[in-house]
Amino acid sequence: MRRRFHERLKDALPSDRRAARFLHIGLASLVLAATGCELFKTRDPEPPEQVSSTFIPPTIDSLVFTNMIEAFNDLNSDNYLECLADSTTSPEPFAFEPTPSARQQYASVFSAWTLQSERQYFDRMKSSLQAGTTMSLTFTSLQRQTIASDSATYEATYTLTVPHTFATIPKQAQGRAQFFLGIDRTGYWVIRRWVDLSINQGDVTWSDLKGAFGQ
Fold first, then answer.
1. CA dihedral of 57, 177, 111, 208, whole degrees rounded to 10
2. Parallel, antiparallel, or unpaired: how do β-strands 189-197 and 172-183 relate?
3. Where does the pLDDT of residue 49 fall: very low under 50, low under 70, confident under 90, or very high at 90 and above?
4. At a CB cut-off of 8 Å and minimum separation 6, what does 66 contact?
5. Which pLDDT band, with edges at 50, 70 and 90, does 205 fall under?
6. CA dihedral of residues 22, 27, 28, 30 (deg, nearest 10)
7. What is the C-alpha to C-alpha distance for residues 50 and 48, in angstroms, rounded to an integer?
8. C-beta atoms surrounding 139 within 10 Å
9. Where are the domains of the chain?
10. Any idea what DSSP says for residue 164?
11. H or E segment at 27?
């Protein structure tokens, strides 16, 4: 009787092999659970694309043109607009006067040209660039015509190169421009009025690129 009881007790107890098997199953379940948590874990978002920025506070009038050159090189529309008068900080709003030929060709565009129009054409040129390229602005002649405590006038010849992908739009503009600068309420120099002029009849000017990309 006692022997039978011991035999039954022995059969009821798990063997070493059975215990090891249960242990492996338990460990596998834990690993799967941990892996599943990692699979469904929310990933951190990718950092936004960094935009280059080379901007010198324009406490001197000539620095406005340095910043404008760098804005095109950096493809930075924010820094480009910092070169132009903003009605919220300047006593005079920004004004752009295109060449007569561009005004005629793009009459609807230039009929209501604003500071926002400047951002729009800049960003559209930027988005149309060939891969791995940038825009380039050079002033081959930049001369101060007048200077006062809070205003200055410059005249310049320029070349603007935009290696975009549109076959029907020129990739380079050349011309002459008059810039009328002033100091805004932040103490920085800005362009209040900008008059674009062609050097030779039929030349593609800055106005033409503004008109084409400002539509």
1. -110
2. antiparallel
3. low
4. 56
5. very high
6. 130
7. 6
8. 16
9. 2-39, 63-213
10. B
11. helix 16-39
Closest CA to 173 of 185, 160, 189: 160
Question: Side chain identity at 127, as an amino acid letter?
Answer: S
CATH number of 63-213, picked from 3.40.50.1980, 3.10.450.50, 3.30.70.1150, 3.30.420.240: 3.10.450.50
CA distances from 48 to 42, 44, 71, 82, 146 (A): 18, 12, 19, 22, 43
Q: For residues 191 and 206, is the Cβ–Cβ distance under 8 A? A: no
Residue type for position 118: E
Q: Global pTM?
A: 0.77
At position 154, the amino acid (one-letter code) is: Y
Kindly state the average pLDDT of the residues 168-177. Answer: 98
For the ranges 3-17, 169-183, 197-211, which has the lowest average pLDDT? 3-17
Are 126 and 135 in contact by the 8 Å Cβ rule? The answer is: yes
More confident position, 20 or 72: 72
